[in-house]
Amino acid sequence: MSILIKPIITEKATNDSEVNNRYSFIVAKKANKLEIKSAVQSAYGVSIESVKTLNYPVQKSTKYTKKGLVTGVKGGFKKAIVQLAEGESIDFYNNL
After folding, report:
1. Percent above pLDDT 70 for the chain
2. Which of 17, 26, 30, 82 is a Cys-bridge partner for 5, taking CB atoms 3.0 to 4.6 Å apart?
3. Residue 82, class by beta-carbon neighbours within 10 Å (0-12 exposed, 13-18 middle, 19+ buried)?
4. pLDDT of residue 92
5. d(C-alpha 31, C-alpha 28), whole Å
6. pLDDT, tens digit (0-9, with 9 covering 90-100), for 36-47
7. In a 10 Å sphere around its CB, with 0-12 CB exposed, 13-18 middle and 19+ buried, how is residue 66 labelled?
8. CB under 8 Å, gap of 24 or more: what pairs does 72-77 form?
9. Are 73 and 58 spatial neighbours (Cβ–Cβ below 8 Å)?
10. Which class for 33: exposed (0-12), middle (13-18), buried (19 or more C-beta within 10 A)?
């Protein structure tokens, strides 16, 4: 089981990484903070100060359309925000 699923590269996450040296990842739902910390350290070779996690629930939506009632589901996920030590950085674009 892979702990790190993918990095979050949005405008808000990129600004947070440039200003506050914090990086966001989507991680496995069962992963804890110690596993996330060791996975990021081994994958990117950086030292980490802290890890914050957020659990997003499954979102269900219902729309009334011409075809009738349409329902949709967005899957839930776990997000980790990793604070790196001073002077460290991660380059997501180096092996494109």
Report:
1. 97
2. 26
3. buried
4. 85
5. 5
6. 999 999 999 999
7. exposed
8. 76/29, 77/26, 77/29
9. yes
10. middle
